[in-house]
Specification:
elongated, 117 residues, 4 helices, mainly alpha, Helix Hairpins
Length: 117
């Protein structure tokens, strides 16, 4: 039985394996880019869920004397950067696929390898 408290980890593992399978099992270059994007999304989801503390609040200092639990903002900030890099990587990959399609007339990996040899 799957522990509900660890649901986010199971979701990350499933997404990671779906992305990895798509990356290695498909010959279409666009599908490979989609698999890479799903894999990256699972890693981002893992970092964001690990950075959240239950009952935590934004790291803003409170003047009252009570004990306050803060959530760490660093994983969220780093993943924001990772999202931007991922979008740029996907755009570059898609532009390369367009150029490969113009040069070889296909985006299937096997046909490109056969024609290149």
């Amino acid at each position: 039985m799957i522990d509900v408290g660890l649901f986010n980890y199971w979701a990350v593992i499933v997404l990671m394996m779906v992305g990895f399978y798509t990356l290695i099992a498909r010959g279409n270059l666009v599908k490979k880019l989609i698999g890479l994007n799903v894999f990256q999304t699972s890693v981002i989801m893992m970092y964001v869920t690990m950075g959240k503390i239950e009952g935590g609040t934004a790291p803003i200092l409170v003047e009252s004397g009570e004990h306050v639990v803060y959530s760490n903002p660093i994983p969220h900030v780093l993943m924001l950067t990772a999202i931007v890099v991922g979008v740029a990587t996907l755009a570059l990959g898609l532009s390369l696929v367009v150029r490969i399609n113009e040069a070889y007339g296909t985006i299937e990996e096997d046909a490109i390898m056969d024609e290149a040899l």
